[in-house]
Specification:
The chain is 32% helix and 25% strand. It contains 13 helices and 21 strands. Strands 4, 6, 7, 8, 15, 16, 17, 18 and 19 form a 9-stranded mixed beta sheet that branches. A 6-stranded mixed beta sheet has the order 10-2-1-14-21-20, with helices on both faces. Strands 3-9-5 form a 3-stranded antiparallel beta sheet. β17 (311-315) and β18 form a beta hairpin. The two termini are 25 Å apart. Keywords: Oxidoreductase. Pfam families: DAO (PF01266). This is FAD-binding oxidoreductase.
Length: 427
């Protein structure tokens, strides 16, 4: 199983049989993009398409979120956050030794110079989101009935916390994001059911949302199948090599699924497969919690981001979803739904008419890189292997753009942006 040096001047493969591992929003978009380039595409997943993190996320098309998670001052805040079990960042202490390398890189990414660079690189993708999504939405028959683009409302509990947020807001404005300040009266005019506790806020004008993330993934998946794509339930554990290149995926059931081109796009589970393919990567998971409740008599017309509480409230088809914050605990530990309850309690302070009756709690795994940038990359080891994971909070947002970029890399086409910042071996 010796590796050969990739020839970066040739396409991925002379053949057109592509396998995409992962049937979430990123994997399905990659599959669709490769179909359009003439590939025979099979998506593999050990579960039902769209049932992972793509099922229960906050539903935001968050094109304004080019600021990384680690910002200047993060190092000073981390100890206090970790001491609060229900704060914006918590950790399962038994997982800390495994998480420490990721945390050290996360803190290193919070320097001002790194934040400025990272935000530029995230904005390069985010500034393309609507341009890349709109044709995909139209071709799949998805439209305004499921996608909304009316902006998000960020609210602050004091003028001080708004001032404290100025660097991040200014950073995003400098990257081309449209953000405008609004007053208490304007907040209440827009969302009269909010608690009258917010003296100021901002409108993030290009933010969008979906009415049901699962319906988006399954709608795109249905379009993928209708266009001739294939799906196979498979839990991939390793690869079979020929002439130094991986040519088949081995599954737990003993099958060998052959391919000419491989794309690893299985979210938080990509780390193990990337290592198998010779590319170890500092990918870990941010465990995200939320509660979705029926509307009852609450009115909410757009996404609300309460900065002081580190929560987001999204009006959806099935109700209002309240989530946010980050738990670092890996893939194995059972959920701690007390976090969902704590987030919902904060949500009731923001939107007092919220009623938990009939609600459902959920936990998902956000696949996250310590510098908040995704991996959208050729393999440095194998010319027929590509990686597409690590989108953190922005998987739904970046789905169509990631699909387009991966298809360009696979076919050797000119990409619309420089792909160097997203390479898998950047650490």
């Amino acid at each position: 199983m010796t590796n050969t040096k990739p020839d970066t001047n040739t396409p991925a493969s002379d053949g057109k049989k592509a396998v995409v591992i992962g049937a979430g929003i990123v994997g399905v978009n990659v599959g669709l993009a490769l179909l359009k380039k003439g590939y025979d595409v099979t998506i593999l997943d050990r579960g039902e398409p769209g049932r992972g993190t793509s099922f229960g996320n906050a539903g935001g098309i968050a094109v304004s979120e080019c600021a990384p998670i680690a910002m200047p001052g993060t190092l000073l805040n981390v100890p206090g956050w970790l001491m609060d079990p229900y704060g914006p960042l918590s950790i399962r202490w038994t997982y800390l030794p495994k998480m420490m390398p990721w945390l050290l890189r996360f803190i290193a990414a919070s320097s001002k110079s790194r934040v400025e660079q990272i935000s530029t690189e995230l904005a390069a993708i985010l500034n393309r989101v609507w341009e890349d999504y709109e044709p995909v939405i139209a071709e799949a028959g998805l439209n305004d009935a499921v996608f909304k683009k009316e902006g998000a409302l960020g609210v602050y509990r004091s003028e001080k916390t708004r001032r404290d947020a100025e660097y991040g807001i200014d950073l995003r404005r400098r990257k081309g994001i449209k953000i405008r300040d609004i007053t208490r009266d304007e907040i209440m005019d827009l969302e009269p059911d909010l608690a009258p506790i917010f003296p100021c806020g901002v409108i993030e004008e290009d933010w969008g949302r979906v009415l049901d993330p699962f319906k988006i993934v399954t709608g795109l998946y249905k379009h993928f199948i209708e266009r001739g794509g294939k799906f196979q339930t498979a839990d991939v554990t390793d690869f079979v090599y020929r002439d130094g290149q991986p040519r088949a995926a081995m599954t737990t059931s003993g099958d060998q699924i052959t391919f000419d081109t491989l794309v690893v796009a299985c979210g938080a589970w990509s780390k193990t497969l990337a290592k198998r393919l010779g590319s170890p990567v500092p990918l870990d998971t941010e465990r995200g919690y939320n509660t979705t409740v029926p509307y009852h008599d609450v009115k909410l017309s757009r996404t609300i981001i309460s900065a002081d509480d580190s929560i987001i409230l999204t009006p959806m088809e099935m109700g209002i979803r309240v989530g946010g914050a980050v738990e670092l605990g890996g893939l194995i530990a059972p959920p701690n739904y007390d976090r969902a309850k704590a987030l919902f309690a904060k949500g009731k302070e923001v939107l007092p008419k919220l009623n938990a009756e009939g609600g459902t709690e959920w936990m998902g795994f956000r696949p996250s890189m310590p510098d908040s940038k995704p991996v959208i990359s050729k393999s440095p080891k194998h010319r027929n292997v590509f990686f597409s994971f690590g989108h953190g909070h922005l998987g739904l947002t970046m789905g169509a753009t990631t699909g387009r970029l991966i298809s360009d890399l696979v076919t050797g086409s000119q990409t619309p942006i420089d792909m160097t910042p997203y390479r898998i071996n950047r650490f």
